[in-house]
C-alpha cells in the first residue's frame, strides 16, 4: 500500500468513526483506483477522491408514526445524496432495524460507481429508515410510509433525487410513498421507481436486479466458453432479488437448490422449480411468511435454522457450481468464501450489495474464480429504474421484451467495461478493479469538466 493510500484511508477513518461498512466500501474503491490516479495525476490535484468520499448532502429527519393501538413511535429517516455529477441522485430506500448513517453512506457510495457503469445518466444516493416492516400490519406500514414522505417530499424530485426500493421496501411501500408525494406536490412525476404498472412503473423493474445478476454470471461464463445450463446454484435470501435470480436461472436451464431468510435456509436437492418458486413468491410477497414453510410444504427439503454461534454459514458449505448471494452485506465471511471454493463453486455473482467481506473477496481473486462484485453484477435494478425514468419522461411504456433486451444490453456493457478495464490496468479477470476503475473514471472525468463545486 502506498503512503498516499495509507494517509488517505487514515483521514477517512478519522472523519467517519463508527461507520465500518462505509470505511470497508471506500477502502476497496480507493485501493482499486490508485493506478488510475497514478496514470492521470490531475485527479489528485483536483482532489477528486477527497471530494467523492464526502457526500454532497446528508439529510436526517424525524419520522413519527402511530401503530394500530394508537401508540406513537419515532423512527429516523435518512437520505445520503452522494454524488450528482452525471445525473440526479438515484438509489433505493431501505427499511430495516439495522439502518444507520454508516450503512446508508456505504450503499450511497457504492451507488455512485454502479450507476456510472450502467451507461445511464444517474448520480448516486441511498436512504431509508430504521423502521422494521416485519410483523407490522398493512395499515401500520402505510402510516409509516406516509409519515416518511410527509418530510421527505421537500428534498426530492424527478430531476433532483429519485428513489427506489431496497431491503424492506417493495411495491407496497413504493405505492404508499408515491401516493403521499403526489398528494403533497399535486404532481404526477417519476420521482420514485419500482412503481406499479398502472401508475407509471416499468415492466421488468421487479425482475431487473435478479435477472441482471444472472445475465452478469452468463457473461462471465461466456469468457470461458461456458453457459449456465445444467449448473447447480446456491441462492441466499428469498426477497425481491433472490426470487427473480431463481426465475432467470430456471429460464437458462440451471438448477437452484437453496434459499434463505434471516431465520434460516432451505436445501432442496431436487431443485426449486417454477411451481415451488410461485409458492415462495406468494409466501414472501403476499403472506409475508418465513422460508421454513417451504420445507413444511415440499418433501425431501432440509431446513437449517440460522445459528449465530457458528463461525460460518452452512448455506455456503454445499457442493455447487455457482453462488448468488442475494440477502445482505457481509453475508459471506472468509470461511464461507473458502468453503465455497472448496465445494467447487467457481462463479459468484453478487445480487446483494457488498455481500462478501474483504478477506473473502481476496480468496475469490486469489483462486481466480469468476467473481462479479455487486456494483457490477447487481446494477440491473438501477438500470431498469433508469429506463422507468426515461419512460416516465416520454409518457410512454416499452414492452416487456424491449425492456428485457435493454437490460441484457446494459449488463453486457457493464461486463465489457469491467473486463476490459481490468485488463487495461494490468489485472485481467479482476472484475473488482475493473468495475471500480471504470465507474470512477466516468464520474471523475465529469467532475473535472464541471469544476470544483460540482
Ligand atoms: P428484500 O427485503 O426483498 O429481501 C431481503 C432478503 O434478505 C430477505 O429474505 C431477508 O430475510 C434477507 N435478509 C435481509 N437482511 C438480512 C440479514 N441481516 N441476515 C440474513 N438475511 C437477511 O430485499 P431485496 O431482495 O430488495 O434486497 C436484497 C439485497 O439486494 C440487498 O443487499 C439490497 O441492497 C440488494 N439490492 C437490491 C436491489 C433491488 O432492486 N431491490 C438493487 C440492488 C441491490 P428476512 O425477511 O428474514 O429479513
What does it look like?
The radius of gyration is 21 Å and the shape is globular. It has two domains: 3-189, Leucine Dehydrogenase, chain A, domain 1 (Rossmann fold), CATH 3.40.50; 208-368, NAD(P)-binding Rossmann-like Domain (Rossmann fold), CATH 3.40.50.720. The protein is built from 17 helices and 13 strands. It is of the alpha/beta class. The longest helix has 25 residues, at 400-424. It has a five-stranded mixed beta sheet with strand order 1-2-4-3-5, with helices on both faces. Strands 7-6-11-12-13 form a five-stranded parallel beta sheet, with helices on both faces. The structure holds NADPH dihydro-nicotinamide-adenine-dinucleotide phosphate. NADPH dihydro-nicotinamide-adenine-dinucleotide phosphate is lined by residues 165-168, 170, 209, 237-242, 261-263, 326-328, 351-353, 378, 381.
Question: What's the structural blueprint in terms of helices and strands?
Answer:
Elements: H1 3-15, H2 20-39, H3 42-45, H4 48-52, E1 57-66, E2 72-83, E3 89-95, H5 101-117, E4 124-129, H6 138-152, E5 161-164, H7 171-185, H8 205-222, E6 232-235, H9 240-251, E7 255-256, E8 258-261, E9 264-268, H10 274-286, H11 292-297, E10 301-305, E11 322-324, H12 334-342, E12 347-349, H13 358-366, E13 370-372, H14 374-377, H15 380-394, H16 400-424, H17 431-450
Parallel strand pairs: 3-4, 3-5, 6-7, 6-11, 11-12, 12-13
Antiparallel strand pairs: 1-2, 2-4, 8-9, 9-10
This protein binds NADPH dihydro-nicotinamide-adenine-dinucleotide phosphate.
